[in-house]
Design brief:
The complex is a heterotetramer, with two copies of chain A (305 residues) and two copies of chain B (279 residues).
Chain A lengths: L2 H8 L5 E5 L7 H9 L5 E4 L2 E2 L1 H8 L3 E6 L1 E2 L8 H9 L6 E4 L2 H12 L5 E3 L7 H4 L4 E8 L5 E7 L6 E9 L5 E2 L7 H7 L2 E9 L2 H5 L5 E3 L6 E4 L17 H12 L1 H13 L4 H8 L1 H7 L1 E2 L10 E2 L1
Parallel strand pairs in A: 1-2, 1-10, 2-4, 3-5, 4-6, 10-12, 12-14
Antiparallel strand pairs in A: 7-9, 8-9, 10-11, 11-13
Helix pairs in contact in A: 1-2, 2-3, 3-4, 5-7, 9-10
Chain B lengths: L23 E2 L2 E4 H12 L5 E4 L3 H11 L6 E4 L3 E2 L13 H4 L4 E2 L2 H9 L6 E4 L3 E2 L5 E2 L2 E2 L7 E2 L6 H7 L2 E6 L19 H6 L9 E6 L2 E4 L8 E5 L5 H6 L6 E8 L5 H11 L8
Parallel strand pairs in B: 3-4, 3-7, 7-12, 12-13, 15-16
Antiparallel strand pairs in B: 1-2, 5-6, 8-9, 10-11, 13-14, 14-15
Helix pairs in contact in B: 1-2, 2-8
The chains are: A alpha/beta (305), B alpha/beta (279).
Chain lengths: 305, 279, 305, 279
């Protein structure tokens, strides 16, 4: 499926959309296509709301954000996000805030269709006072000291669609990831529909030579999109490196609304699709991010004699 | 992401790109980064597992591994355990941390089984604001609803605080805007606030705060941070003035031993030869 | 560490011992060494109580069993277990019974140091009536119909020691498993101490060439024991096949107490260690269980240029 | 392990090794195993995911894949998805299921995200006893505390029942010892018992019971199993007599179409040429 068709089919105005990938394999190209197609009133769910979220905000796609970290990695600020939250410019942003493990537990509860997931965070934090979704449950077992024990819980999240980026998948959607695997599998299982964007679609035999490498099985996947370099400016282990210079520059780009508008005009609205975005960067640019070889040693799965 | 230390641009109102300052400190020829890294590394003596973000915590842990804590394992928030990078990583998710690592864990395993499971001896955290009990704010300056400055938020900081055996905080600038009597917002609470919320805490909370003026310490619930050491040339009064509450001071305030030539050589030649963080 | 030293150091009379491995990589050799060393009053925790549990019972090591399936795979009965439960011969067996996901959730809660773990099982089952550990919690969120929702929960399990078998580990305990990975990682993280038994200890470089293959990191492991073929009669993917004939024969061996005694005398008490057990089976025997090659295709982890 | 179908040795008092009977049935030249497999396969028409143990369920699912449900995926309790075995597997954990599979999942993911997550359309279960609402006993004959016969227990059966869209049960012997008015113990409850326990059920529970006499069916909570079809030559009265409760009977009881030559050929030549299960 093309990215255009996948976004048209699976992302609708008003949807709750999860985009996951923890610093690695961030589905940027999918985010850009959502902006190009002009989606509105999305609730975006993402642990680390970083550059792609700032861009979706700048595209006017998002009315609500559910997240546990709002920053440009450790490289600086998100200008549009800060304007939306600090001064409601150009419009307010509804923000539902959790911690990282809170978000992970929401995905775990969502994936398992549980009414809640307990966790040992939030005790004494001010976060529950600004997020009524964070509640307490009394354990039915005595605590270590014999007394009644309370614990915080978070509610499940079940996005209308989860979009993740991966290194490779077969045609039916069996998706293999190596390096940082993040929370992608849980986010996919929590969702009603899932779109997997990959660096390459490979032959069945490649996937089947190493079934333990499959992080997301086909039964959980509704569309597979081939989109090389679709995780830029983040990285794809073994495919291309992180574009640290772009991360650093984003603070400056996004700080100035005019400059941000120009950037969006040039790189998102000004490109028909991600292939054009990639071509526009130029070959030298990609050569800078190229990586060498460090191959895994094969293991034997065995064959009955 | 856990909240970066208070020198990071997101910790506005100190906004703008990092200025790369290399001003000399009272410790002699060491830069501020070197000084903080060396002092933090010494505090890791004998520790087994440390949860650290990139930057000063990585430098401190790497140096400790070469000096006072040879069995130290750094667990990164990205899920990497036992990294053997070919080059110094630039982020906690740098690809060079993964190639050649001993294990890469999913977020659920890292936060659930490793961190909440109690496998981390020392967690490193930064913050925009800290109070006398080591409670931390990395969320907002001002009100949460309409903040003057929106900071990154918890990330995994709350989990690091709740579940590590103890927490070390590195603060580059010891001043009353950061060392506050009342936090604007408590992101990551120490054990005293957990107890007040009716929940028995797991770890000791913040036990060490390493700053450009000295070292504050406490050992667990019920205790305030106390000034236990100052850098050479720093007076107790100067630290008191830089602290937004009536700072407790140890009976005997030590003077931090300046970085030794051996420590500085390891840091500069082996840990960060490219001076990626030793700005 | 030798198996003898590992069992002597980490398994004590009265301990709660988890042995995991779901049909694959069952730590049989460790079980035999526990029997040889004459441990008593153990609580054994194992999802599928199968042949190794029947042997531990026959060895008189076990007073309590925590399990979700008590049977010889699909190949027949466990004679000693049935005698202990059906007629208290030669002595009663305390049995704490769960379902598979109940056991998995107990390990998950144990690994995460949670006071309980919710799951959508047990509603209407008779199991809670015979197991007071299975309780209910009221969700603090309204259910789909707006009404209050109740859900069953199970308590954590934190074994004194968990013993698992794996294909390989490095000297410091980074353990790699492929094929069925079962619940081993959770069982290890739930335990106070963990012993990993492996087919082979490999060079650091082998493990580090593929960090995603590491299912159990060294920080969770207290002893690594090299014990080739230590999972027999179960299998080790890529190393040797399952001994189905032995599974079928176990029903007959264990049905007759005298025959069972003879078998234990010959194969457990009559061998000094697992190396002797392996040698005693003979080369032809192992040739029958040998497997051919089916190598995984390598992936590129990348190297900075 | 889920509980094996009621022909397995653990379902004593029918103890002892399986006798490998191949008696002819009313369906003509098909064996009992072939008949049950073919009938079960037809019921999988259009289904997408089936959770199946080894034995008759595997045969039924494999045959369905070749006939009425070309997109069918078998998910095994061991964690294998999309198996492409080089030979017919002998257990749900057979190594040949893993080599060449599309995915292998941990138990936590399989039971949590796949099964409890609602990804299974049809689960196959066996049992020693079944009642009129499709509640199943695979735990004990007699009292749980001191049973006459200790059976394997739930394994994953309770989870398959609670979380699959619907459940098919294959019972080789339709007789009053297995089809009981009152179970000795309810291991795996259907939706009616869940509701009585105050919990809203997810799936329909048992919707098909395929036996050596015919097919019982129900569509969900509030309904009893009804006889909807008999094998050629089997009378309704014979089924009633073999059932331990007053069996409801459909207005129109169909006669099961005997296995076709094409179905038998596929089963014998493509699905189980070594006759591992087609005993």
């Amino acid at each position: 499926m093309t990215m255009k068709d996948a976004i048209a089919s699976f992302v609708h105005d008003g949807d709750t959309v999860s985009l996951e990938g923890f610093t690695h394999l961030i589905p940027t190209a999918a985010g850009h296509e959502i902006i190009r197609q002009g989606r509105r009133n999305l609730t975006v769910v993402r642990m680390t709301a970083d550059i792609v979220v700032d861009q979706l905000l700048a595209g006017g796609c998002v009315t609500k954000l559910v997240s546990s970290f709002v920053g440009n990695s450790s490289a600086g600020s998100l200008g549009e996000l800060r304007r939306r939250i600090e001064s409601a410019e150009p419009e307010p942003l509804e923000f539902e805030e959790y911690s990282h493990y809170g978000m992970i537990c929401r995905y775990l509860a969502g994936a398992q269709r549980l009414p809640f997931h307990p966790l040992r965070s939030y005790a004494g934090s001010d976060l529950p006072s600004v997020n009524p979704g964070i509640r307490k449950v009394t354990s039915p077992y005595p605590g270590p000291d014999g007394a009644t024990e309370e614990i915080y819980v978070v509610p499940p999240v079940n996005p209308d669609v989860t979009i993740v980026h991966a290194q490779r998948a077969d045609r039916s959607g069996n998706t293999q990831v190596w390096g940082l695997t993040g929370v992608q599998a849980e986010a996919v299982y929590a969702a009603k529909k899932a779109v997997v964007v990959v660096e390459e679609i490979v032959e069945d035999e490649v996937v089947r030579s190493d079934p333990n490498r499959t992080v997301i099985p086909s039964h959980a996947v509704h569309a597979v999109v081939a989109c090389p370099r679709g995780a830029h400016p983040s990285f794809a282990q073994g495919y291309y490196d992180r574009d640290n210079a772009f991360y650093r520059s984003w603070s400056h780009i996004s700080k100035d609304p005019a400059r941000l508008r120009d950037w969006m005009a040039e790189w998102v609205y000004g490109t028909r699709d991600h292939a054009e975005y990639v071509a526009k960067q130029g070959e030298e640019f990609w050569a800078e991010l190229a990586v060498g070889e460090a191959m895994s040693l094969p293991v034997n799965y065995g064959r009955r004699l | 992401m856990t909240a970066p230390p208070n020198d990071a641009p997101n910790d506005a109102p100190y906004d703008g790109p990092y200025d790369g300052e290399t001003k000399m400190t009272a410790a002699g020829t060491a830069t501020s980064s070197e000084l903080l890294s060396v002092v933090a590394s010494r505090e890791l003596a004998g520790r087994r597992t440390v949860f650290a973000g990139i930057g000063l915590p990585t430098l401190a842990a790497s140096l400790a591994h070469l000096t006072v804590a040879p069995r130290l394992e750094i667990v990164y928030e990205s899920g990497v355990c036992g990294a053997h990078p070919s080059q110094l990583p630039e982020t906690i998710a740098d690809a060079v941390l993964i190639t050649g690592a001993e294990a890469v864990l999913s977020m659920a395993t890292l936060f659930g089984s490793v961190l909440q499971g109690g496998h981390i001896d020392v967690g490193f955290l930064g913050a925009a604001q800290i109070d006398r009990h080591g409670n931390l704010n990395s969320s907002v300056i001002g009100d949460w609803d309409r903040p003057k400055v929106r900071l990154p938020g918890s990330g995994g900081a709350m989990e690091v605080m709740a579940n590590s055996g103890e927490v070390f905080v590195v603060m580059r600038r010891h001043d009353p805007r950061s060392f506050m009597a009342e936090l604007d917002f408590c992101t990551s609470p120490g054990p005293d606030r957990a107890l007040a919320d009716g929940i028995t805490p797991r770890g000791a909370g913040v036990t060490r705060v390493i700053t450009d003026l000295g070292i504050l310490a406490r050992s667990g619930a019920g205790e305030e941070l106390r000034l236990v050491a100052v850098h050479p040339g720093v007076t107790v009064d100067r630290v008191r003035a830089a602290t937004g509450w009536d700072l407790q001071v140890a009976d005997e305030v030590a003077t931090v031993e300046p970085p030794t030539a051996a420590e500085l050589r390891l840091l500069r030649e082996d840990v960060d030869p490219g001076r990626v963080y030793l700005r």
